[in-house]
Write a structure and sequence with these properties.
4 strands, globular, homodimer, 3 helices, alpha+beta, 29% strand
Chain lengths: 100, 100
């Protein structure tokens, strides 16, 4: 299965980040054609008890790499990307992957 | 659901890494008590077409944070950690998280 992964570093204002993420960014992103599922993981610590280097991970699942590319190129995909850059451009790392 | 995430940077020798990962590390890790599932994602590029900053992600699922901690503390968990450090100590980032 094709996956787009977004890894976010810890925002300075976590409350504002969470609010925008949940109330604005996820609803925009959910409209992307071909997107099958969104899974969100929140990180806490490393196994050694240190603060995790990332705050949150979002996994976005598509049936194929082609669907993922088409989703990102769509108007809805571009709207999601534009919103992302507006509130987390300096925090996010995006990667395309394939889950075994 | 509780998750342990391992993010690996790109190894110099991918063939040797994949061989050790699949033939040695995963079988050791699968023995950890309480571990429900392992999901492996291989990364390719960023949406902008650049090389992804990580090579591989392993997600290890447990029923609870308590189970995850007990798994890591177990003899099998320690054996997995020792093996990990032997072949990928300089490549791996480990984080504990909770999937919504």
């Amino acid at each position: 299965m094709a996956k787009l992964i977004a890894l976010y570093k810890k925002p300075e204002d976590q409350i504002a980040f969470d609010k925008h993420y949940n109330e604005v960014h996820v609803p925009i992103t959910e409209k992307i054609p071909g997107l099958r599922e969104i899974k969100v993981t929140k990180f806490s610590v490393t196994p050694m008890g240190k603060e995790a280097p990332y705050y949150l991970m979002c996994e976005m699942f598509y049936d194929s790499q082609e669907d993922l590319k088409n989703g990102l190129r769509s108007a809805e995909g571009k709207a999601s990307g534009k919103d992302l850059m507006s509130f987390a451009g300096d925090l996010v790392t995006l990667m395309i992957g394939e889950e075994d």
